[in-house]
Amino acid sequence: MNRNLRMTHQREIILEELHRGKIHPTADELYERIKKKLPRISLATVYRNLEILSEAGVIKKLEISGRQKRFDWDPHDHDHVFCTQCQRVDNIPTPDAPVPYVAPTQEKGYRITGCRIEFFGLCPKCRKQQETTKKTGEHDMACTTCEPASLSDAQRQVLEALAQSAEACGSKELAASTGLETKQISCQITALKNKGYVSSPARCKYEITDQGKGALG
Questions:
Q1: What are phi and psi of 72, to 5 degrees?
Q2: pTM of the prediction?
Q3: Which residue, among 158, 145, 150, 146, has the nearest Cα to 187 in the 3D structure?
Q4: In order of start, what are the domains of the chain with their CATH numbers?
Q5: How far apart are CA 65 and CA 207, in angstroms?
Q6: Over the stretch 155-206, which tens digit does the pLDDT of each residue have?
């Protein structure tokens, strides 16, 4: 950990909110909570401070299977498991798990410096939801991944703009192509991310997921 890191009021609030829920939020999700305490803080400021804190070793940055970055309040070594349905992430304590061995002839010229083990499956809530659906044979209205039609007009506009773009877009680009205000874009992006329709391959850049393309029909 970098002992010279200056702990500003903004960083203290970010750490407090990150630690409060003991979950693994995205920068966008954390921003929605932090702005209730710091109304003038911007999403870019939250992103920047999260990057600084993770680089200093105060928190941990998770980049799971190319999904949007999440942040972990616990910087100590441990692995993670994520739900393939709702994207929830939980810690998996594996202190005694053996590290996979790679023979020198299999290293492809790399100098391997570490290993990350990633588990995936269905979380307890999604498992229960799935079991209930199977028993009743009915469509589960709480399952957002099964509701491709549940899009507002603004969300559909944003998804269509992303689908037509050959590369990831920023909020200003989306505002220009949809005619929506930048603040509206930010709100719609957050909602679409929660549905799993949009991902963020780079900071403040967005692209449509395969699930999002399916939602457009």
A1: -115, 130
A2: 0.50
A3: 158
A4: 1-126 (1.10.10.10), 147-216 (1.10.10.10)
A5: 15
A6: 889 999 999 988 899 988 898 888 888 888 888 888 888 888 999 888 889 9
